Amino acid sequence: MDHITNERRKLYLRGVGEDEVVYQILDAVQHLDHSKTMREAGLGEQADFMLDRARQKLIELLGIHLEVH
After folding, report:
1. Alpha-carbon distance 67 to 69, whole Å?
2. Count of CA atoms in the C-beta half-sphere (13 A) of 17
3. Cα(43)–Cα(61) distance, integer angstroms
4. Which of 37, 47, 50, 54 is surrounded by the fewest CB atoms within 10 Å?
């Protein structure tokens, strides 16, 4: 079983349906966007926190790794 399928299976076992998985992905993407706004406002430390949180959530849900340059 690949990582993505395994993570989805874990979510289904916890009673989280497919729609909820999509909502969680969208939430993580919003955190990415929010971190950019915070960085532009000079809030680097808080932006890093938001970015790390979003990155971890996407890794959990999709099995992807994000590199930020």
Report:
1. 7
2. 1
3. 27
4. 37
If one counts the domains in the chain, the total is: 1
* 46: in domain: yes
- DSSP summary character for residue 9: H
The pLDDT of residue 1 = 45
Q: Which residues contact 36 (CB under 8 A, 6 or more apart)?
A: 47
Q: What's the CA gap between 20 and 22, in Å, rounded?
A: 5
pTM for this model (two decimals)? 0.57
Q: What is the spatial distance between Cα 29 and Cα 2, in angstroms, rounded to a whole number?
A: 23
Domain containing residue 20: 3-62
For the chain of 69 residues, list the mean pLDDT of each consecutive stretch of 10.
61 65 82 87 90 85 62
The answer to the question of residue 14 being in a domain is yes
* Predicted pLDDT at 41: 92
